[in-house]
Design brief:
By secondary structure, this protein is of the alpha/beta class. The protein folds into two domains: 4-31 and 283-424, Lyase, Ornithine Decarboxylase, Chain A, domain 1; 34-278, TIM Barrel (Alpha-Beta Barrel), CATH 3.20.20. The chain is 28% helix and 25% strand. It has twelve helices and 21 strands. α3 links the parallel β5 (54-58) and β6 (77-80). α5 (108-117) crosses α6 (127-140) and α8 (208-226) runs parallel beside α9. The longest helix is centred in the middle third of the chain and has 19 residues, at 208-226. The protein is globular, with a radius of gyration of 23 Å. The structure holds pyridoxal-5'-phosphate. Residues 58, 61, 79, 102, 199, 202-203, 237-240, 276-280, 386 line the site of pyridoxal-5'-phosphate.
Amino acid sequence: MDDFHYNDGALYCENIPASDIARSAGTPCYVYSATTLRQHYTRLRDAFAPLNPLICYSVKCCSNLAILRLLTELGAGMDVVSGGEIFRSCCAGGDPKTFVYAGVGKSESEIRLALERGVGLFNIESEMEFEHVARIAREMNIRTRAALRVNPDVDPKTHRYTTTGKRESKFGVDLERAVAFFRAYGHDPFVALCGIHLHIGSPVYTTGPYVESVQKALALIDELAVEGFRIDTLDLGGGFGADYESDQSPLASQYAAAIVPILQERVARGLRIILEPGRSIAANAGILLTRVEYIKKSGDRNFVICDAGMNTLLRPSHYGAFHFVWPVQPGVALTPPRRARELILPGLERTEVVGPLCETGDFLAEDRLLPPLRRGDLVAVFTAGAYGMAMASRYNSHPLPTEVLIDGASMRVIRAREQYEDLVQHERDSF
Ligand SMILES: Cc1ncc(COP(=O)(O)O)c(C=O)c1O
């Protein structure tokens, strides 16, 4: 599933040893595999080919310009949720006509930017938002298209912070209000309400919740047709899983096997399908490289203190997420079966892999069996390509890390490491 592999006891990304990457780029460092990104995108595209969907990569999960450009060149559109994401997607060569714009809190200036640039579809999240977008579009004399994000009240069985399609979530409009919504706004001269948008959560590890929500959306589309509202676009959102620790995540082909049959006949009759995958493309296309600064014991716990922490990768601390962690050069005998939560190999030690921040919640991996580590060793945190760098912060005034993109034997720095000057460049201390 990805191009990070151990060869003779050393980790490689594609053809380059991870230790060479760390030597030249420093740590902490996000490393992405271009081959893996391409593979994940094309697998999804091929699996869903019978629906000929527009695949809008979810920019929020990993938004580096080089990655957006790579996916744009493969034919991806962009799923954007802010003015900043519209801006960076345009900078990366994206065509705004292939952008879909969601988000519960679109500001006036963001809406104006989206209209000016000609974003293809607004995904509308509330009555008040529709009125706001319609007023601005009228003022600017720009016509646009919109989908109503409906909340199908389906449980995706994922972390409560990323459950977005249940009744009590802040996203979208309850399914029962959808028809009234179209009656109120479905004839607007500037904003053509022509689509339905769903995004039930992330990651969704089974296909059932998709089937349930798509069926509810199709029933709604039929109900709207009876009232004279023609829906030409159905946006299914994102949320396809990534394999963090085992083979728990369905493959693109398994999601497609469940979803395609329900939609094929509708597509033949003219329904346009949009997908918004993020994690399933980027998560396993990236790792985080970090260096061990110190080793210490506290009570009977063995702490490995690294130069990356919750500021660099927030997921373990924020979501309790599991990331497989393993030394870059563990020794031939200890090359792991990838991603096992509990490795039963001789010589491993119970270890807490933590960061440098002044927070007890600052950890990358808790209570793991790892080969003994020494100061200066390199450690890889796997499946870090999605919601990794994108959620990184400068907390404790650590500059943001560097990002590199590997393609075969070539390595490109796609984000320079921040310097201390970057930390204060927008601050003023004289008045
Ligand atoms: C509206 C919307 N679409 C797509 C995505 C992407 O989800 P994933 O990265 O799990 O595919 C998200 C994630 O939060 C989202 O909110």
